[in-house]
């Protein structure tokens, strides 16, 4: 377990939740989510910085509401996320919508909602200008510097599909000018799980320099990507050091320019990652000769990060006798693919069928990336509130309900209401 992420809650509490509500179940801790938000909002003292939460990391409405209550706005990347935040009562000025191959219907829906639309291609900017002359929007720039915990989540590099090329900015300005559209902000996002803070500082410089192309900027958004430690020997991101370096640069900019801008950052993982875990039960203990597997009732359908990015999540047996001798296990899922392994060569107290495991640091990109692969039902979600109560924040569907719903959605059987 990482020293910066000590076991976040009494394991007996988790065990009681697993026994009462069944598994697989995602459990989130409200106090950690609030703590993480407060660390951010208190970070920059004299610089006008605002924080947006990247909804894609965890879009459970209860979690969005907690983060809204902490005063953060929202970074959204689909019209559906926009609608979700609007339905939960967020003011459109606090919703930033970074489009990605958006349709006309999505563009017009978002524009009508009045959210801040952040456009990432000249093609889309043109259609926006033609449809919404006289309005304003933001643009996403390709900063040509990328980072991330895996190549698949590096979004800023030269070959990235995201953002408008720097050498096309003049063209973008001419385009908006000819339609009386105002660029109210510029944005970039270099990637998720940033390894080198210097790359983020470099991107900040790129955007500050790019700001000279625009006359009436209200904000500059530097994106998200703040990492959390997952492995016991991962270094924790030094947020204070980063904020110190960024503050110096931003203050200098504010001193030297006439622009009255605000700055945004939009982290997701950092706020919810270590606040969540996935509880699962061991169904099978299997000695395969060179390896012993703990076979669980979840899999990469519910937590895809190990299979997709070779990501590491600490796994703790919360029901084993702590004094039992240590054994080495691979923790496998119940999906019909050999790649469905949640943790390899993990040292744990001797484990048995019926034991419960907690897969840690799974609050970000866990449930939001879950699927029905192998036609499995989704996990339930439980919130442990600040007051120490726990409540179901997404109900489990039984296998029977889940299959019934699928048959109805596909239209092969008619629901009684149709
Ligand atoms: N802003 C934009 C435009 C983004 O695309 C993202 C993440 C963020 C902010 C938030 O990044 P964060 O602070 O959470 O690193 N599924 C991957 C992560 C993909 C992130 C995609 N974009 C994972 O499980 O590691």
Characterization of this structure:
This protein has 12 helices and 17 strands. It has 2 domains: 91-267, TIM Barrel; 273-409, Lyase, Ornithine Decarboxylase, Chain A, domain 1, CATH 2.40.37. The longest helix has 18 residues, at 239-256. It has 418 residues and is of the alpha/beta class. The model has no long low-confidence stretch (mean pLDDT 96). Helix 4 packs parallel to helix 5 (104-113), helix 6 (122-131) packs parallel to helix 7 and helix 8 (197-210) packs parallel to helix 9 (239-256). Strands 1, 10, 11, 12, 13, 14, 15, 16 and 17 form a 9-stranded mixed sheet that branches. The chain has an 8-stranded parallel β-barrel with strand order 2-3-4-5-6-7-8-9, surrounded by 6 helices. The protein has helices spanning 11-21, 30-41, 61-69, 79-87, 104-113, 122-131, 169-178, 197-210, 239-256, 269-272, 305-309, 399-410; strands spanning 25-29, 49-54, 73-76, 95-98, 116-119, 136-140, 182-187, 219-221, 262-265, 276-287, 292-296, 315-317, 326-332, 341-349, 356-359, 380-384, 390-394. It binds ligand LLP. The site of ligand LLP has 24 residues, from helix 10 and helix 11.
List keywords for this structure.
2 domains, TIM Barrel, alpha/beta, 17 strands, 418 residues, binds ligand LLP, 8-stranded parallel barrel, Lyase, Ornithine Decarboxylase, Chain A, domain 1, 9-stranded mixed sheet
In a few lines, what is going on in this structure?
Helices cover 30% and strands 22% of the residues.
